[in-house]
Amino acid sequence: MNLEHERSMDQKIFWLNAAFLAERYAYELRADPDWSIKGFTSAVKRDFGMEPSEQQIYRARQKATKLNKEDFVDQFHKLHDYCEELKKGNPGSTILLKTEMDGKNKRFHRLYICLEACKRGFKEGWRPVIGMDGAFIKGPHPGQLLAAVGIDGKNRMFPIAYAVVEIENKDMWEWFIQNLIVDLGIENGQI
Hints:
Blueprint: H1 9-15, H2 18-31, H3 37-48, H4 54-77, H5 79-89, E1 94-102, E2 105-114, H6 116-125, E3 127-137, E4 143-151, E5 157-165, H7 170-184
Antiparallel strand pairs: 1-2, 2-5, 3-4, 4-5
Helix pairs in contact: 2-4
């Protein structure tokens, strides 16, 4: 009796197809959209011990890209619900979402979030110093993350507010800072 079983070529092809690979590696392709065919192939070989064809890899990349784009669109539609849940779960928080109409579709413009606990914590006990910075958001929908942080008694960062904007420019920074001034009750540079 032979206890070792080898899959036939048909069985390998049946489950190792472009749809399976797209679903399995969608996250990796989202993180690195320029992932080479050689790198993708070696990952499949490492994980499953089989080498897919270049055509399978090409189709899998196309399907994964489509899956990732659909996921971003789906997440955008949930953004209003997310803001409402934040307001419900954090009374007194400031959440401002601005979208613009692009034909018949809504298009994201900017989002500002300052949670009540962060506002109160900064006002009641942290050093009156605010640091601000911007960072790139990469991916199919690039943008900028603007953040304001305070410093606690042990010189650790304390988040105050953040915003996601399409582009970092003077107008966006003014909008962010004006909202922060209102939230913290800053008058003439004093809290």
